[in-house]
Batch of 2 targets.
Target 1
Amino acid sequence: MRTFRMGGVHPEENKISNDAAIEVMPVGKQMVVLMNQHLGAPATPVVQKGDKVKVGQLIGEAQTFMCANVHSPVSGTVLKVDTCKDAFGLSKPAVYITVEGDEWMETIDRTPDIKRECTLEPKEIVAKLKEMGIVGLGGATFPTHIKYSIPEGKKAEYLIVNAAECEPYLTSDYRVMMEHAEEVCIGVSILRKALGVPNAYIGIESNKPLAIAKMQEMAKGFEGIIIEPLKVKYPQGAEKQLINAVTGRKVPSGKLPIDVGCVVSNLGSCFAVYEAIQKNKPLIENILTVTGKELPSQHNYVVRIGTTYNEIISHSIGQLPETTGKVISGGTMMGKAVVNLDAPTVKGNSSVLVIGEKEARRAEETNCIRCGKCMHACPMGLEPYLFSALVKNNKVEEAKAHNILDCIECGCCFFSCPANKPLTDEIRLGKNKVRAMMAAKK
Amino acid sequence: MTHDILIAVLILGALGVLFAVVLYIVAQKFKVVEDPLIDEVAEVLPGANCGGCGKAGCRAFAEACVAQGNMEGLRCAPGGDAVAAKVAELLGCAVAQGEPQVAVVRCNPANCGEKRKSNYDGLRSCAFQATVYTGEGGCPFGCLGCGDCVAACQFDAIHMGANGVPVVDEEKCTACGACAKACPRRIIELRPKGKMNRRVYVSCVNKEKGAEARKSCGNACIGCGKCEKACPFDAVHVTDNVAYIDPTKCKSCRKCVVECPTGAIHDVNFPAPAKKPEAPKPAPEKLEVPVAEKVEVKQ
């Protein structure tokens, strides 16, 4: 079974919400839609106070290159266009909508029928992805239309779909595969057509045998979709690692996947692509996992974007258990702790993960014993312990020379460190310093 | 026997002369003429290499002084007037007079200690924490309390105070500005020490709108503009929802201090007034800020 060559760790999987079917979360009374839900500049609001909006109506327009459209997840009246504090307490531009009924745009096909044929040309597909505000749902929320606009002089040879779901606890991609396998395959076919590549590979980790079987069965009915079972290892879902696992190619330092002829999309994105292209439905919903060892029940939900964390928690489990240490958006390895539970969810949120007090606390940091475990764990072949020392002593040039910018911040070094040194934090700080230095030089 | 010795002495002597000539020629050819004044100037500088003057170190500052011939635009903050006078004497120019300055920490959080809204468990670095979230107090403009400024200070003049915000030791502070540069939230400002070390400043940099700012911190400047109206010298102005006192215009009358509804304006080193016991000014009764459930922050 394939996997990536270098480094990697195997954290406890904890996929305890595997068997919870996707439920629909009801819509709240008020929605706050952030304009900054993607990598890049915030979208510009195109509605004003008092405007009536329908579900799926454009409310934030992408006016710069690195930007994505934002659509209304609900119908109702625009209360105000203001700022709102996001999950980390930072103010972001937002549109507040008072919910009235549930009136969808007429263009959106809400029938349960599955539409297989796509007659659009590759360019039209990319244009529609842009219109529908599709972004990568693997975590980085990179605007999909930019990813699929291949720069001149470069050629895509492989489309790789990331269904590894290597992060502990997360099960939303698994549930999508189990419940919407056909839609996903259609989405993959559409993306394959947009790129003009002969084959698309869907990488699934072998701890999901049912999903592998289901997808293999479904892929038989589609041309050029190959299911690739992968050995369980974190961070398999990271772009460069997945390319290495599936194709054996290595993305050189400072290069992008397209430089080795690969384009990687998340499985959730493929489902969103299907809905956008075939059903005209913009990206207004997230599929997210509500999980945690101490919760009374585990859930997978389809949630309108803009629903707050508190609403999700109160609907699914009533209230947080007494022993809650922290709430994480994302998995335990790369997810971020949520500080403001009144914040709305945004595109790309994949979970509400509740961690108990004991587990939440970091163990005490001791001295580096030069064991080299961080080096063995690093999937990028870097030397985390070295960066730790360089960053502490402000040797920014040297850190750059040792390719600190190649770090994908997967957290394997911190995970494997017996001295509990916050290596990933130090490297992230170092990367910021290097970027600041490079910007100053320009 | 003596013959052998003589040959050895002659050969070595000849070699010695030859090398001496070569060395002399090389020394003449690659001679670097350096103004001896630079050494003299460098001698009177503090030698801390703090970089507060904007140059790479004390010697670079001395070179700049000598190259320029006067002290215009050049000032050694740690040395102050004494050093400036000495350097001016060596250069034979007028003394560059500058008002002595001191670092001022413009944050006075209400959400410290038990009132923290979250616990930060990550790398002890403000620069890093600032990229992660608002900080434990919940104010997106407030002090993060990891002490990047303390680490940056070469003069042991800044330490973490009891309420999680750094305190400047006025005696030791040389106004080199290293702490101000190290602070990712730009809270620390260099301000003139003021007459008899008395000064008035707005101890907040929160740019949020009034209600939001108040939610973030009970002691925040809410940009109400009362101080602006109270000031008879046009020294206080509210821009971006936060007041700023222009130290060149401020006459330390302290009318704004009384007006401020949140206690964001601080006056330091004033004697206690006869009618109202006010200095050192205790923070007025804070608004109770609802504390969100404690959520820990990893990352």
Note: The interface with chain B takes residues 88-91, 320, 324-328, 336-342, 360-362, 422, 425-426, 428-429, 432-433 of chain A (CB under 8 Å).
Target 2
Amino acid sequence: MIAYIVRRLILALLTIWAISVVTFVIIQLPPGDFVDAYIVQLSASGSVVRFEEAQALRQLYGLDQPVWVQYGKWIIRVVQGDFGASMEWNRPVTEVIGDRLWMTIVISFAAIIITWGIALPIGIYSAVRQYSFADYIFTFVGFVGIAVPNFLLALIIMYFGFKLFDLNIGGLFSSDYQLAPWSWGKVWDLMKHLPLPAVILALAGTAQLIRIMRANLLDELRRPYVTTARARGLVEWRAVMKYPVRAALNPFASTIGYLLPFVVSGSIVISLVLSLPTVGPLLLRALLAQDMFLAGTIVLLLGILTVIGTFISDLILMWIDPRIRAGMHE
Amino acid sequence: MVEPILSVRDLVTYFRPEEGVVRAVDGASFDLHAGRTLGIVGESGCGKSVTARSILRIVERPGRVEGGEILLRRADGRVVDLAKLDDKSQEMRNIRGGAIGYIFQEPMSSLSAFHTVGNQIIEAIRLHRKLTAKEARERAIELLQLVGIPQPQQRVDSYSFELSGGLRQRVMIALALAAEPGILIADEPTTALDVTTQAQILELIRRLQAERHLAVILITHDMGVIAEMADSVAVMYLGKIVESGPVDAIFHAPRHPYTQALLRSIPSVLAAPRSRLATIAGSIPHPYARPPGCPYYPRCHSFMAGVCDKSTPPVNRIDAAHEVRCFLYGAATETAA
């Protein structure tokens, strides 16, 4: 078992390295570089950049060197914890990202927990009472939920929240705490602001998850071990919850790994609409501005988080699925 | 005669999906006595398993027990009609496992892969007996020992996929006997096993039956298993019991053309080499296109036009224990009466 975990860890490190290469390549792919984008930006506001000036900027950022040298310089500094400076913000990348990464993780986890809390019970109910009236209702609502763009839902909720309850849903903090240093008051303020954006984010994945849970469980409900459980005199709900639901939940453990990037990349538009201080909008802006170090750092961090998430879900699967544990001894 | 422990009368179990009606069990009757084995035999889809599941009231929707009586004699002497009980009631749950144990065909998929075999046996014990977790565990180990599983102290913590097919089926038997029921229903218990293991499992069932005076319903399509195990036999075809009687009568003087055909189709070591195996003409009709009259007439070699396809044959009595549902023996009833 230890050997298995060590092997997983080594593979995880190799994967992270591969992600860093791919990240770097992706950043290099669009034509032009940051300086080009910078020049366009400046000329849009009326100022003109001379050719020598542009070259000096390129030299400053190392953009005139071969790609692999640029990658080498970048990755060596990354390993030392220096992610470089954001060209657009003129500040270290770590400072620009700052709390946003943690905000993203907090809000993502809140959204995931809410998604599961809503979707799994409904999915179970829909499967156990297949073709019942409520199943049809949930199916209908589920498909509408899949079809409606989430930012639209966010806008509608914001509108009614403001109109009916005089709530300002945007952001994660009230204006008093926006720039204030961390304190218990600020944490409490966050807790008050967190539920609504988290629910809106959560609804995005809920409909889909209901369908998956329903399908998984319908498969399992037909298995003979459920009949066996009934035949020994188990109460129906217990026979369902202990055996088929347990089996139907298993695949969800393996999805933990990519939930985080899914929520981050899938929620950029919602985050913009709700003006949430997460990394999603920041990544979008960095990509538009060809702010290489910032975009690269965000993509790399998301990649690393995915690898860590996958590693954790492997450990969880190992813990909950005896068949995987048994397979490791062979 | 001794009162039967279980008496099934005119059992009717229909499946009603949206497309039509499947008459899975259509008026089956039989008696089961303590210490005896009743073999129910028939082709796939004839309603054997549904009959067994109807007794425990675990037929899956859209199936439902729609008529007849399932009279179970409880340990205290009371007679309960299981067909009238609510299938979710406490009493029905007490009977499942508590009075009637059930062994399923596929020992692999009939056990949960996420729980140890001990976990499932202990659950079955504690559902019916007031034992502490520790006592139940000891009881589970005893049960595993009883069904002939080596190293039961270690095996109790195994998962089903860590056991061989034969051991798994032994676990299923331990599970069925966990609460010491008086009746054991074995639904094709050896179909998924190789021949050697089959013989061992049948031997085990026979030993346990003798030790505990169990009444056994053995469901199979294998006439060889019936000959070896059963005291009496019920032959099922399309939801009806077409012939029933003592095992000797069924094998040596079969009356119903279907029983006769089934017996002819058993491979024999005495048969001439390279001769073809006898088969039954045609195949089981589609469940929605059930023939009128006797369900077997389209495949029957003694088919009487205008009789068999017009009305359902009555149950004709050959002797006290031997009954056949066929027009060929109508006269016998009349002379007897």
Note: Chain B touches chain A through 35 residues (CB under 8 Å).
